[in-house]
């Protein structure tokens, strides 16, 4: 760069402030709103949301189960998500944090986008629908609990996908 003092490269894949933002922000909001949480799940992209939120939730209550989500295939349609077996693993990722991992198919995320739109009129992004898919899978495996996930983005940038499936 011609003027390096004028620019800052955030390096979201290696910057500890990524996961710390969720440790101090997202997790504390969840604890405040749902102190009865039993399960947390989120997709892996930069991995900051999952790692930071999960670390704080585990400190709050070690019994909270944290389950990471990732695409089931290397070639997938879940923008922002990483298939960690075939991707460059973010420097902030810590594989010891997750209690489990669920693979999500793009097709299933698209089905959920369509279903939620027809039931409620709510437009979801593929990654938000994929997080809901993971939460639903957990719900089908437990008898009771409080499952929390995040909807990381809205549908504004996905009109091509939405128009094809809805």
Concise synopsis of the structure shown:
The chain has about 170 residues and is an alpha/beta fold. It has helices spanning about 15-35, 50-60, 105-120, 125-140, 160-165; strands at about 40-45, 65-70, 100-105, 145-150.
Approximately what portion of the residues adopt beta-strand conformation?
Answer: 5-15%
The largest sheet, given as strand count, sense and whether it forms a barrel, is: 4 strands, parallel
How many helical elements?
A: 5
List the helices and strands in order: HEHEEHHEH
What would you call the structural class?
alpha/beta
Cα shape: globular
Strand order of the largest sheet: 3-2-1-4
Radius of gyration: 16 Å
Number of strands: 4
Fraction in helix: 40-55%
Structure, described:
By secondary structure, this protein is an alpha/beta fold. It has helices at 16-33, 48-60, 106-120, 126-141, 159-165, and strands at 39-43, 65-71, 100-104, 147-148. Helix 1 (16-33) crosses helix 2 and helix 3 (106-120) crosses helix 4. The protein is globular, with a radius of gyration of 16 Å. The termini are far apart. The mean pLDDT is 94.
Secondary structure elements and their pairing?
Blueprint: H1 16-33, E1 39-43, H2 48-60, E2 65-71, E3 100-104, H3 106-120, H4 126-141, E4 147-148, H5 159-165
Parallel strand pairs: 1-2, 1-4, 2-3
Helix pairs in contact: 1-2, 3-4
